[in-house]
Amino acid sequence: GINAEYGGVNTCLDNLWTVKNSNITVLAVKPLVYPKILQEIAPAVGPNNVIISVAAGVTIDSIQQRLPHHAKVVRAMLNTAVQIRDGAICYSTGRNVADADQELVHRFFSSVGLTLEGEEKHLDAVVGLSGSAPAYFYLILEALSDAGVRHGLSRDVSTRHASQAMLGAARMVLESGRHPGELKDEVCSPGGVTINAIYSMEKAGVRAAMMDAVDACIKRNYELARLNE
Prior knowledge:
Layout: H1 15-20, E1 24-27, H2 34-41, E2 50-53, H3 60-64, E3 72-77, E4 87-93, H4 99-110, E5 113-117, H5 123-131, H6 133-150, H7 155-176, H8 180-187, H9 193-203, H10 206-227
Parallel strand pairs: 1-2, 2-3, 4-5
Antiparallel strand pairs: 3-4
Helix pairs in contact: 5-10, 6-7
């Protein structure tokens, strides 16, 4: 639970106490545990409490059905980079969430990363796109680092160079607002080394593999949602 200023975090072993003494309560538990947790905290949920779910596949409606009619519910998708305040967060609000509550939630999440509000129907796509994306990028970084080691660089140097290159590319997209394809073309000189590398990646199906990975993640998210209905 977090107080209105979210200046500090108090820990305790009593979920009811946490809800009663917090303006914002984040339900950071596995989806299959939600029915039990919601039943436990329901008596403590008042009209001023904002309940935030960060679980994949758990809808706002399914949460509100298990809480008092006045419950203010927010569903959010985020990734592990919030640990270093550089995450990607998208959230959607339930029917009882007022403008002041929405502003508080937005400020709360903005303290740990890029925060956007969106329709709940799009959150499943966000799960597959940015929610699970750190794992995709770690796999790519590991492969790039392996390539550097294969060609004589140390593991540390390979990993740091690959990581900085990925970070810089991401910042170029975000700060310039330009299409990634346009930025890619700027790196690819006619007949040069980079376009040959891109050709090799396209031939290997890297683009389709990334899209398939997002699809697979979203499909599993739908399966989890059905289990929690």
